[in-house]
């Protein structure tokens, strides 16, 4: 067969070739490995072929072509993937290079959540909520 197997051809060019597969199968689609996987996919020359393969084979696990299983299902059903994410090249949180929040709390997996494409500090959120509750109690 001249030209080779097309499935093998695109996989041989994948940016993730030889990488730890656990990065592409994170515990949560919001943890650091999920963002790492999306960054790899963003720069991958065959991300579209990977995404197409995931959609055709109905792969329900891991990041493929830059999308999570939920995002791929939405795309396959003619819906836009949540949070305005594009099918290819998720860049990660806009503040991904920062290591601490504005109140100097470290961005760790336990202390971080992502909302509207930005990492946020759970400790700051808790402190804001506590202050709001205290203000409401004083006013009553």
Explain this structure to me?
This protein has 140 residues and is mostly helical. It folds into two domains: 1-92, no CATH class; 96-140, no CATH class. Helix content is 39%, strand content 6%. It is built from five helices and two strands; from the N terminus they run ααααββα. The protein has helices at 6-12, 32-42, 47-57, 69-76, 122-139; strands at residues 112-115, 118-121. A two-stranded antiparallel ribbon has the order 1-2. β1 and β2 (118-121) form a beta hairpin. The longest helix is centred in the last third of the chain and has 18 residues, at 122-139. The protein is elongated, with a radius of gyration of 19 Å. The relative contact order is 0.10.
């Amino acid at each position: 067969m001249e030209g080779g197997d097309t499935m093998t051809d695109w996989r041989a060019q994948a940016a993730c070739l030889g990488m730890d597969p656990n990065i592409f199968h994170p515990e949560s689609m919001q943890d650091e490995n999920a963002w790492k996987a999306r960054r790899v996919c963003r720069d991958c020359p065959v991300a579209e072929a990977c995404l197409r393969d995931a959609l055709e084979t109905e792969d329900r696990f891991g990041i493929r072509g830059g999308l999570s299983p939920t995002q791929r299902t939405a795309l396959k059903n003619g819906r836009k993937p949540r949070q305005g994410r594009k099918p290819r090249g998720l860049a990660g949180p806009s503040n991904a290079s920062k290591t601490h929040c504005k109140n100097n709390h470290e961005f760790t997996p336990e202390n971080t959540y992502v909302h509207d494409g930005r990492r946020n500090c759970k400790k700051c959120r808790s402190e804001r909520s506590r202050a709001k509750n205290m203000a409401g109690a004083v006013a009553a």
